[in-house]
Amino acid sequence: MIVATLLYRASHLAVGVLAVAQRRPEVPLPYAGIAAALGLSALLYGTALRRGRFETRYVWADVLVTGCTLPLALCAWGDVHEPATLAWAMLLGGSGSATAAITLPRLHVLGVVALLMVTHLIGYRAVGTSPAVIAGHLNALVSSAVLAWAFTWYLLRQGRLLDGANARALAAEAHKARYAERLEHHRALHDTVLATLTTLASGAVDANAAEVRERCAREASYLRRLIQQTAEEVHHREIGTALEDAVGCVEGLQLRVTAQYHDLPQVPPEVAAALGDAVREALNNVRRHAGTGHAYLTATGDPDGRGGALVTVVDRGPGFDPGRHRPGLGLRGSVHDRMAEVGGRATVDTAPGEGVRVELRWPG
């Protein structure tokens, strides 16, 4: 609105400069008047552009000097005898009323408009202006104030609506972040503590075995870290370390893993963590469902040469029919979703009697 009213005032000043340039130089008041209008306008709008708002005292000075005093002084001492020679000064009142409408309190704006209307009536009557012309100028004066106030009200209202929308968007993002953190905690518990408890409950391993007790102690420590973990913490692990951690977890539950690594690439820490967690859950599934105590893990650089990674987990169990079995929480959330979140992809290849092959590829 500062820029809009500045352009409005600039159009009026341009008319004033052209009108005064055609006057006789021996009458100095019009020249002094346009100079005062230019200087006061520079002070009013220059200050507003620097500070981002109009100064109330400068608005009142502009109304009283440019809008009221200048037209009446021209009528009294400026050798003005016809409406055409006075109109440029009267125009300045229109931009003055617009500036007042977006700056002053509502009652003060009514006072400013009334004061400018009285000035117009006195000035135009003094030079014999017809009532139709006076009515047109008074209408323009009031319209300038009303339109400026309406535009300001609309922009402020839109600003408040936008602020509300931004606040709701931020709240939704915060809720989404909290949900994602809870989901990650659930996945971690499913892949570690729950997998261990399920295996112990099935009686498939000796709970008093040294390696089982060591795994339980390790996961108790992990659970404590998980409770204290914040959303900003990131697992800064290389891909080989992440995969070896996953293998070590399941070997504690008496699953033998034959692992082969070749030309492992450098990947972002979050990708290494996702691959390690997905492999751990795939090996947990072998331990729980495949009915075999042996799994095969292979990890290489992307054979397509794109700098990615390819990891496979294979077992020689009975397999299953993908058309008759929907993927469970572990396969869906801890494998597929984890890879998708880092831009990767997980695929499962299986058939009855042919075992299961889980392929993890990054990027997908």
Automatic annotation (TrEMBL):
Sorted UniProt keywords: Kinase, Membrane, Transferase, Transmembrane, Transmembrane helix, Two-component regulatory system
A Pfam family recorded for this sequence: HATPase_c
Sorted alphabetically, which InterPro entries does this protein's record hold?
A: HATPase_C_sf, HATPase_dom, Sensor_HK_TwoCompSys
**What sections of the protein cross the membrane?**
29-46, 58-80, 109-127, 133-156
Indicate yes or no for the key word GTP-binding.
Answer: no
Gene3D superfamilies tied to this protein: Histidine kinase-like ATPase, C-terminal domain (3.30.565.10)
Q: Any idea where the Histidine kinase/HSP90-like ATPase domain is?
A: 273-363
**Could you confirm whether the keyword Transferase appears in this record?**
yes
Protein name per its UniProtKB record: Histidine kinase/HSP90-like ATPase domain-containing protein
Identify the species of origin. Streptomyces goshikiensis
